[in-house]
Amino acid sequence: MDCTEVLSAIDSATSIALISHIMPDGDTMGSALALYMHLRAAGKEAALFCEQPVPPTYRFLSMSEAFRLPGTWDPETEPYPLVIAIDCSDLERLGDCRSIYDRAGRTVNIDHHISNERYADINLVDDTAAAAGEMIFTLIQKAGGTVDNPMAEALYAAVSTDTGNFSYSNTTPSTHRIAAELLGRGIDVYSLNNILFRTHSLGRTRLLAMVLSTLEIHREGSIATLFATDDMMRQSGADESETEGMINFAREIDTVEVGIMFRSRGDGTVKVSFRSKEYVDVSALAQSFGGGGHTRAAGCTVQGSLEEAKKQIMDRLLPMMERSR
Amino acid sequence: MDCTEVLSAIDSATSIALISHIMPDGDTMGSALALYMHLRAAGKEAALFCEQPVPPTYRFLSMSEAFRLPGTWDPETEPYPLVIAIDCSDLERLGDCRSIYDRAGRTVNIDHHISNERYADINLVDDTAAAAGEMIFTLIQKAGGTVDNPMAEALYAAVSTDTGNFSYSNTTPSTHRIAAELLGRGIDVYSLNNILFRTHSLGRTRLLAMVLSTLEIHREGSIATLFATDDMMRQSGADESETEGMINFAREIDTVEVGIMFRSRGDGTVKVSFRSKEYVDVSALAQSFGGGGHTRAAGCTVQGSLEEAKKQIMDRLLPMMERSR
């Protein structure tokens, strides 16, 4: 990774804005925070921007209260000589922070997405990095900065969340080598993992109980379905975002090839998510209903009641599974 | 880690028995398999022993079919010049494989438990290692052996299971550095993680639905309880071992300090498990019912019905929580 241009841009700027992407995740938050702490330690004026508030999960990170939300800035009176977008594959991902970006003297794009559009004056893009956090770690090292304990916590949050705790296929030897360096800064791995991966609301736990009780098995165990309704959401008190990941309880059953989650909504539509393991192309299935996604993870929206949606999906999936075996 | 004695014992032996501990886990299985593959590659005659069959989760590992069970050997006619116990803190952990160990010409003990009893002729004990797998990796490197892909898979299974996928407090920089080396051997991290951590039986999933539906919250969300009965076990078809880990769904609720799981049994006893987060010493609670454990994870058995057990526990826990705040 050649950081020369980015480092010299940072060197010559007195004041630097860092932007995290919309619907912020651990990588964009942790990476921006670590770079922010590094810049301040290096005597720079720096500011953090994001369209949305820091998600509760990441509020334990040092300095997370420094993120500024729309309404707290006036880009006309506050132009930055240097703006760095972090973990943003395109300019859409900046959301309302575009107003800061567009008035920058110079722009930098630090990202690891293969789809990155190289939209800035200086583009530091490494699609072999599992997380922007890996790149920020390397950047700080090359700048001669010290990664202290709070920075290591932020970078650990970045790297571990983007790799599913070192379990996704984007995890590389380099990911683990960087994790080794971060652990060397004395971070409390057990507490961090409890915060990042093992904390759920009561509402989410109640919803999970309800959703799991809807489990149905089809085709000799090769298909498992779950569903959630508006009633279940209301009764449990769970947030819509908390349905995320529940489909995995269907997919993780040993005999299952395709896991399906139906989310029936009051407006007469059903959001359908698919996960497959080895041989069913669920993106083709989703596309046939006007949706899309990847071969092993896809989704679509179907008109009608829950029962109608189930029937439509199964009528198309069953013959597909016969063919694709 | 000074491996000199172990390496010279291996060098001078023509035939070597490796023993994994009773109730085998990923570390004892993966470590023994990797060492077995190394010894064979080095031209040694080697054999693998364990009192119990390889758990289904680990049967995908190369050579796992080589493990021999009691009844397949006669220690009188098959004495080994060298026997190596792997991941066994004391001789009890060898179970029936003791008969092989006791007739050995020489014995080696390779382990990472702090409680290790140094019972062998040569004891290679490193309690800073998160897993025996870390030690075996180092041993093979020092022996000048090549860790190939199947050996890396076995060692990854060993290290990742003993560290809760790099999340427990035993995880060190060295753990991640070794993981980096293993990933460098081209192992498929995503598939391995799916097999090791994300595969459950239909029975377990059904039982989880039932157990979560028993969720009760006490003391403004600071206590969460779950239970399982014999009826639920029968109806779900789950194995007794599959109740393991379900208590975490209680502990992981954000407001919860103490998670409790009751397993009421037909014999009129209730097995009670406790997990706490920050300030309740659940081992003291468990001890007051004749049980034991650690400060944050403990258990006991109580006489009576489920309702009686719940009442007894809550009657003692509530005042404890008042005091310990």
What does this structure look like?
The structure is a homodimer of 325-residue chains. The first copy, chain A, is α/β, with parallel strands linked by helices and 325 residues long. The first copy, chain A, has helices at residues 4-12, 26-41, 98-102, 132-142, 149-162, 173-183, 189-197, 202-212, 230-236, 247-251, 282-287, 306-324, and strands at 15-20, 45-49, 67-68, 82-86, 106-111, 122-125, 216-218, 223-229, 258-264, 269-276, 292-293, 297-303. Chain A contains twelve helices and twelve strands. Chain A has a six-stranded parallel β-sheet with strand order 3-2-1-4-5-6, covered by helices on one side. A six-stranded mixed β-sheet of chain A has the order 7-8-9-10-12-11, sandwiched between helices. In chain A, 38% of the residues lie in helices and 19% in strands. Chains A and B meet through helix 6, helix 7, helix 8 and helix 10 of A and helix 6, helix 7, helix 8 and helix 10 of B.
Largest interface, Cβ cutoff 8 Å: A-B, 48 and 48 residues
Assembly state of the chains shown:
homodimer
Order of helices and strands of chain A: HEHEEEHEEHHHHHEEHHEEHEEH
Beta-strand percentage range of chain A:
15-25%
CATH topology of the largest domain in chain A: inorganic pyrophosphatase (n-terminal core)
- Which CATH class of the largest domain in chain A? Alpha Beta
Which regions of chain A have little confidence, pLDDT < 50, spanning 5+ residues? none
CATH homologous superfamily classification of the largest domain in chain A: inorganic pyrophosphatase (n-terminal core)
Structural class of chain A: alpha/beta
Q: Residue-averaged pLDDT of chain A, rounded?
A: 96
Let me know the number of strands of chain A. Answer: 12
**Total helix count of chain A?**
12
The domain count of chain A comes to: 2
Strand order of the largest sheet of chain A: 3-2-1-4-5-6
Distance between the termini of chain A: 43 Å
* Helix content estimate of chain A: 25-40%
Major sheet characteristics of chain A = 6 strands, parallel
Instruction: Provide the gyration radius of chain A in Å.
Output: 22 Å
Which overall shape of chain A is indicated by the principal axes computed on the Cα atoms?
A: elongated
